[in-house]
């Protein structure tokens, strides 16, 4: 069952949606159920996917991977989302960009800071500060 902010993908056409309000129905695209993208938190090979969060003056830097993730035409990080005490900041990326984003945030010391990123080949990943 879908929940708020879950990410779903159509395996047929590649559409990706984020649930903003769950009404109880089934998400369907191209005539088939969309697939929920589970948030992975550990990359057992080279740690190229787990987003790393660093608090810096005026905000947070998010870098994808302790080993930087590739940003190639056929394999790249499509977006990074930072969630600070429930506030969501979102940045799209494209091939050739660096797999890192600086998010400005100046609303005091947050209690929870989480980042999610989406790799076009390896799916959804989550990291915490
Ligand atoms: Fe990847």
Would you write up a description of this structure?
The protein has 129 residues and is mainly beta. It is globular, with a radius of gyration of 15 Å. The chain has a four-stranded antiparallel sheet, with no helix packed on it. A three-stranded antiparallel sheet has the order 2-1-5, with no helix packed on it. Strands 6-7-10 form a three-stranded antiparallel sheet, with no helix packed on it. It starts with 6 loop residues before the first strand and ends with a strand. The chain folds into two domains: 7-36, Rubrerythrin, domain 2; 51-128, SOR catalytic domain (Immunoglobulin-like), CATH 2.60.40.730. It is built from no helices and twelve strands. The protein has strands at residues 7-9, 16-18, 28-29, 32-33, 35-37, 51-56, 59-64, 77-84, 87-92, 100-104, 113-119, 123-128. Bound molecules: fe (ii) ion. Residues 49, 69, 75, 119, 121-122 line the site of fe (ii) ion.
